[in-house]
Specification:
By secondary structure, the protein is mainly α. It has a single domain, classed as Hypothetical protein af1432 (Orthogonal Bundle), CATH 1.10.3210. It contains twelve helices and four strands.
């Protein structure tokens, strides 16, 4: 399903796709999360079910998954890629010092703060039409949501639901954004050997997150470029008809009909 924006079009999930993705996320939790905390995790998702289902992954068109349902779509992709990237590290001789549960738990919750706080969504629709058209801002940050970094809000939500995390999960969630997050610099840039990161979990998560974001961004870009190509072809066809002076027989006795038909071809919705 496609939504027009900025003269092009961007990806948009159907209601069925959004529901299917949410169900897949719950199944992933059921499969990979164990122990007493599983029920606590499931309760958090049930309490904020609608918000998890509908949350976008970013605010701007040229970022990744700036669409309703984009958050869960992104999380599922990061989970899948994290497990595949981990296998690549293993195949190349790296010893893995964390469990699949720790990796998947971290992948699921690395962007948890983008859902918002306990009362408010983090992203809300951009109501400024100029900013939507000229800056590609599909959503904006909700002023009612008290400022925290996305990662800090993730930890706040986890502790609110009394969901325990391991040290490796903390490191993984904390550092998934890599050096894009200024607060991570002291972890990644170590001037003493004893300060160097001891696990590989954060590198694997960062690579998976980057790959997912780039894939999602390119899917949107391809949709926009396709729309631009189709629009160019329509304009070209209209120009050829107008330049030739040929009119369809049914339009010859109806002044203005050809113009209306061509306008509809270019700007009308095609079912």
């Amino acid at each position: 399903m496609i939504k027009k924006t900025l003269g092009g079009k961007m990806r948009e999930l159907t209601a069925e796709q959004i529901q299917k993705n949410y169900d897949s996320l719950i199944n992933t939790i059921q499969l990979h999360i164990t122990g007493d905390r599983k029920e606590k995790v499931l309760k958090m998702y049930e309490d904020m079910k609608d918000r998890f289902m509908m949350a976008p992954a970013s605010a701007k068109e040229h970022y990744h998954n700036a669409m309703y349902g984009g958050y869960v779509d992104h999380i599922l992709r990061v989970v899948d890629l994290s497990l595949k990237v981990k296998e690549l590290w293993e195949q190349n001789g790296c010893k893995i010092d964390f469990t699949d549960e720790e990796l998947v738990f971290s992948a699921i919750h690395h962007d948890l703060g983008k859902v918002g706080d306990l009362q408010h969504d983090y992203y809300i629709p951009q109501d400024n039409e100029w900013r939507r058209k000229n800056m590609g801002e599909i959503f904006k940050h909700n002023e009612k949501c008290e400022y925290m970094s996305v990662t800090d809000r993730a930890f706040f939500l986890l502790q609110h639901y009394n969901i325990p995390i391991t040290k490796k999960e903390f490191i993984g969630i904390r550092l998934t954004d890599g050096m894009y997050e200024e607060a991570n610099k002291s972890y990644y840039v170590a001037y003493k050997s004893e300060f160097q990161l001891r696990s590989t979990i954060q590198f694997i998560l960062h690579q998976a997150d980057m790959m997912a974001s780039q894939i999602e961004g390119r899917l949107t870009k391809e949709s926009i470029e396709q729309e631009e190509t189709e629009t160019f072809e329509k304009i070209k066809n209209i120009k050829e008809v107008l330049d030739s002076g040929d009119k369809p027989l049914e339009a010859q006795d109806k002044p203005g009909k050809i113009s209306t038909d061509l306008f509809d071809e270019l700007f009308g919705d095609k079912k």
